[in-house]
Design goal:
heterodimer; A: alpha+beta; 3 domains; nine-stranded mixed sheet; four-stranded antiparallel sheet; flat; B: 219 residues; 11 strands; 18% helix; globular; binds zinc ion
Chain lengths: 323, 219
């Protein structure tokens, strides 16, 4: 029997009883106080809760990651001109998918016998119930410019804390979610409906229910640094949790394995549904940052040369096995 | 987000946050409590609400082997009259066990067996028996019942209806179904359906209490 990955991490919420830290159980709606053992059930009040990973790397650490990466390419002489910490929104949908479906499945035929060439492909009718635990993350705005696509596996294990937007310092920007909560749940449902069916299914009748759905916005921190080297300016984005370079440009042409990575992201449907408005939201924040005196745009080629492999788009799906 | 403290609203007895559990039973006052069903557009109450429960009367003699347990089951009426369909011998209520959410497919299979079973039932007037905590809250029961109806009724919904037909479900009731639990084999003593069942750990043996209750009614 499989169960969803356990979230040992807390949510930065304290026990109303004794002030102890509340831990999330395997069943994510349940919390238990580490100290007095009091149990709590969390439910949505209609408002979306915003969370962010605890303790993002600071600007100095981000600059150190950049220096490390540049050194790999033989660049020692550079200076960071400006840096902004962006908080990029991702919808995280957790829950259980339960469904009933009926379909016809075409049986695969061996093509090598002459006899079978004349036979119509046989189909079999299937009626079944399906169920899965889901945890998937969807970008809530167009974040392609940052070299980050999905964060499901990251936030699964990260300690989170509620994000208090009004308390962020001046050099930090929060990107607005453009994809609505309803659209995120709809996308999750669609993605589940499709993944429940075999590829050859035809004449599909399906009913899918999402139960115990939890929806939250996770703000993932990404530093955007502008640096100068050899008289030109370059931009680079750095994963604000792991302190690794995500993408950027630099004064030397490098080979990048970006094509395959983007293709994989596209196949998983994570890039396709992003709307143009998403790009606008990021642009808006970007423009605001620029107006506040961020450096000039990259002067030379803008090669998306570096991508952190760990941040591939991922979905955690635990499939229930029949005995 | 709202947090509901898991404790008895009457006597303050704390409830253990057991994974998947949504129906809690107080050791002190023996009442059952569950989070209030969420209504679209309304902020749910932070309080747990009391849940009425009753035990279904066994229709078969208590078997000598195994444990006699009470399985919490949601009984959800299906109001076929609200749809313009000929029901024939179709089931008129969904009987959905409220335990076993970790194996939802098995749970629906079990529910489908119970739902298809014929036979009238009545509740047992007794206060001796103890209700077990359960996993499915009323809103879970509602969502899953729809699928149980689809899985239990042959030939309905028709192709062109499958995507949009609303299953007309009535108000659910959480009842306790007396069963024999022999290892991992659960056999109910009302409809006589048997099923492989792995979620029986939280169900305690109530053979003695059940025998006494039945004797009281007889005399
Ligand atoms: Zn009580």
């Amino acid at each position: 029997m499989s169960s969803p990955p356990s979230t040992a991490a807390g949510l930065g919420i304290n026990c109303v009883q004794c002030g102890g830290v509340l831990r999330v159980k395997r069943d994510r709606a349940l919390l238990q106080c580490e100290y007095c053992r009091a149990g709590f059930l969390q439910r949505s009040d209609g408002e979306v809760d915003l969370y962010a990973p605890v303790g993002p790397v600071d600007r100095r650490q981000a600059a150190r990651a950049l220096a490390q990466q540049l050194r790999l390419h033989g660049i020692e002489d550079f200076a960071v001109i400006s840096g902004t910490l962006f908080h990029l929104p991702f919808w995280q949908v957790n829950g259980k998918v339960v469904g009933w479906q009926c379909y016809e499945e075409r049986e695969t035929l061996e093509r090598d016998t002459a006899v079978q060439e004349h036979l119509a492909p046989r189909t079999r009718s299937v009626e079944e119930t399906v169920s899965r635990d889901i945890s998937l993350s969807l970008p809530a705005c167009d974040i392609r410019g940052f070299g980050l696509v999905g964060v499901a596996s990251q936030v699964e294990t990260l300690p989170l804390k509620p994000l208090l937007v009004e308390r962020l310092p001046d050099d930090q920007r929060v990107c607005l979610p453009v994809r609505t909560a309803e659209a995120a749940v709809r996308a999750a449902r669609l993605s589940c409906s499709a993944s429940m069916l075999p590829r050859r299914a035809a004449r599909v009748r399906q009913r899918i229910q999402l139960i115990r759905t939890q929806l939250r916005l996770i703000y993932y921190p990404v530093w955007r640094l502008t640096y100068s080297s050899g008289g030109a300016h370059f931009d680079v984005t750095i994963d604000g949790v792991r302190g690794k370079v995500l993408r950027g440009s630099y004064p030397q042409r490098v080979r990048a394995g970006l094509g395959g990575w983007l293709a994989a992201a596209g196949l998983m449907g994570l890039l396709a549904p992003l709307d143009m408005a998403g790009g606008f939201a990021v642009w808006l924040v970007w423009a605001m940052a620029r107006a506040r005196g961020l450096g000039p745009p990259p002067a030379v080629s803008h090669l998306p040369g570096w991508l952190s492999d760990d941040l591939r788009p991922t979905r955690t799906v635990v499939r229930e096995m029949e005995p | 987000m709202i947090l509901t403290r898991l404790q008895c609203p009457h006597c303050g007895e704390p409830f253990e946050p057991v994974d998947d559990r949504r129906v809690f039973v107080c050791d002190g006052c023996r009442q059952s409590f569950s989070p209030s069903p969420s209504v679209e557009g309304a902020v749910p109450s932070t309080e747990l609400v009391a849940l009425e429960r009753a035990v279904v009367r066994p229709q078969r003699p208590l078997p000598a082997e195994g444990k006699i347990v009470l399985l919490p089951v949601w009984f959800v009426p299906i109001r076929w009259d609200a749809l313009n369909v000929t029901v024939g011998a179709w089931p008129t209520e969904v009987r959905l066990p409220a335990l076993g959410l970790a194996r939802t497919q098995l749970l629906i299979k079990f529910a489908s067996h119970l739902t298809r079973a014929r036979g009238a039932w009545e509740t047992l007037p007794t206060s001796r028996l103890t209700h077990a905590p359960a996993e499915l809250a009323m809103e879970d029961a509602f969502a899953v019942s729809e699928l149980v109806v689809f899985a239990s009724v042959e030939g309905w919904p028709r192709d062109e209806q499958a995507d949009r037909v609303e299953v007309p479900l009535g108000p659910p009731r959480l009842l306790d179904l007396p069963c024999q639990l022999d290892g991992l084999r659960l056999t109910d003593l009302v409809f006589g359906r048997s099923q492989h069942f792995e979620a029986g750990d939280s169900l305690r043996d109530q053979r003695e209490e059940m025998a006494l209750s039945l004797n009281e009614i007889m005399s």
